[in-house]
Each structure stands twice: as structure tokens, then as C-alpha cells.
Amino acid sequence: MKNDLVALHGTLTRAMAIVDELLRAQPGDSKDTAAYRQFPGGPLSPAGVAEIDRRFDAGQPDSEIALAMSISLGGVSRRRGLWRRSKAK
What we know:
Layout: H1 2-24, H2 46-57, H3 62-69, H4 73-88
């Protein structure tokens, strides 16, 4: 079972890399969502964190942010929690 999961993880990582490359190649996009990641399919880059924080400050809903930035709704929710804690300090 573990070998199957490792193989699946590798396949999904390669698929995410392909998707990120396709997103990067889209002409006319005002924002390059692949630029929000440290590497294809990886965590948010500093620019991605700054962008999501800017969207939180603007009051955008999580679902809109997730769609616009091509990240999971759970990821947006976790970032919102971090953002709230940083604002409370």
C-alpha cells in the first residue's frame, strides 16, 4: 500500500508541475498563479503569501481567493488563521 501511495504522490507531483507550466504559459493573464509557488505544486512563495494577505485585507472570501490563486480552500483557510493571528499581535 505504501509503495502505491508513493507512486501516486510522484504522479500527482509531476501532474502539478505540468499544470503549473501550462498556467505560466497562458498569455494575457494579469496574474501568474504559478508564480505564487516556491516550486511547481509546492508551498506558497513569499510573493504568494503577500498576495493572499493583500486579498484578506481587501475582504475577499476564501472561495474566491482559492479559485483566483489556484490553491485549495483548506490552504486558504489555514492561511487566514495565520493572517488573523498576525493581525492580533
